[in-house]
Please model this.
Amino acid sequence: MATGHRPVDPRASFPKLEEAVLARWRERDVFKQSIERRRGGPRWGFFEGPPTANGAPGVHHVLARVFKDIFPRYRSMCGYHVDRKGGWDCHGLPVELAVEAELGLTSKVQIEEYGIAEFNERCRAKVLSHIDDWTKLTERIGFWVDTDNAYKTLDPSYVESVWWALKTIYEKGLLFEKLKVVPYCPRCGTALSSHELGQPGAYQDVVDESAYVILPSARGNLVVWTTTPWTLVSNAAVAVDPELTYVRTGENFIVAEALAEKLFGPGAQIAERFPGSSLVGLAYEPPFDFIPASAYGEKGHTVLAADFVTADDGTGLVHTAIAFGEDDFRLGEQNGLEVINPVRGDGTYDERIGTYAGRNVRDADADLIEDLRSRGRLLKSEPYEHSYPHCWRCNTPLLYYAKPSWYIATSEIKERLLAANETVNWQPPHVKEGRFGKWLEGNVDWALSRERYWGTPLPVWRCSTPASRARSSSPVLSPGCLIPNNCVSKKSLFLSLRTTG
Model:
C-alpha cells in the first residue's frame, strides 16, 4: 500500500543525514526564523556561559553545549522570545599561560622584560585563534546560538559592565581591601580564590618532611611541630591552649600531656604538670635569629593563648608565622603583632634571610632542618603525608601568603545566598544541598585581585579626600574609591585598557 513516504534505506548514513539537515537549516535560515517567529512574546534571557577560544574544542565540550541548547530550545517551543546570545571568555591565566608557552617564558619577570603591551597583544591574538573551529563544532552539533553577534569579555562595553557591577557593590559597602592570608601561586604570581581551590586536582596527597623543633625558655624547652619548615625563619610566636594540660618531662621538654607518651614513649618521666595558661607570656629563643623579636612588637617570640590548638597531633604547641597561615594571621591581629613576610612574590626568600636569600622556600626545607639539627634545636624529623593545595593551572604547590587584596564581602549576604539557592530547581536535585549548598555554607569573602596582565583592571584608585574616606568600606587597608563618571582618570585608564587589554 502506498504511503507517500520514501522507503527507508537500511544502509543509511546518519552523518550524511545530519549534514543534509544542517544544509537545509542554513538554506532556510531556520535558526533566525525560530527567533523572529517568537518576537513579541515574553522574553527569556540566555547569555552563554562562554568558553575560551584560545584552544581547539574537544569532545568534552559537546556535552556542555548540548545542555546549553536544551533550555533555550524548550523555552522557544513554549512561546518565549529567546535571543540566545553567544559569548567568548577572553581574559585570564589560561590565555597567559598558553602565550607564555609559545614564547618560552616561565615567569612574570620575563613577561615584563618582553614587554607587557607586546605580551597582551599576543594574548589578544591568541584568545580567538580557534574561533572558526568552535563555530564549526557549534553548527555541527546543532547548537542554536548567535555567534555572529557574540559578546567578548575583552570588549570595552563588557569591561564597563564589570566596572558598573563593582561600583554598585562598592556603594552597598561590600567592596573592601584588606591584608589577608590567601592561597598564592609563586609560579603564576597571583592569588587564587576559594572557588579555584575547589577545581579538580587542586588538592594532592604529598609527603613533606615535618620537624619537631626545640625552643629554649626559662621554664624549659618548648617543643613545636611544623609540616612547613620553611616558615620557621619568620617564627613570631608559639600558640597554646590555655585550658589544656601541659607537662615538663625529666629531659626538660614541654609538650601537651596527651602527646607526651607518643613523643617520648611510655616510660617518659613527668617532672611537672601545669595548665597552658601558665605558659602565656613566656619568652623563648626562636628557631632562627634572622628576624628579631622587636620587629614583631612587644609580644614577639612569646607564648600566646589561641583557640585553634589541639592535642590531636604534633606537640600541643603550635609554631606561629603571622604571614603564612589564616590562624596565625588572626592570632597576630588579636595580639598586635606586626606582619613580616620575608618571601618574595616568586617564592624565594628575600635578603633578610641571610644565606637562604634567593632560595625557593620549599626547596630549602631539608637544609633548614639540617641547620636545626646541627645546632641541637631539632628533637626529630619525619615524613608526613597530607593533602596539599596546588595551582590547578600549572600544578605548582601553593603558599598561604599574607598580601593585600580586594574582596567582595559575600559572607555578609550568606543567608540571602542560601535562601536564593532554595528557590532554584536544581538538576540533579542533590546539588542544591550537596556540592553547591555546601560551598555556600562555607562561603568566604571573594578575593578579586589577580596580579597578572591580561585581564579586566579594577576601577579603583587611591584618593585622600575626606569624601572618599567617608565612603571607604570597612575594613580597608587604605582609602580607595571607585572612578566616578566625571573623573578624567577613567578616560586615561579606559584608553590604557583598549591599548593593553
The longest strand covers residues 203-217.
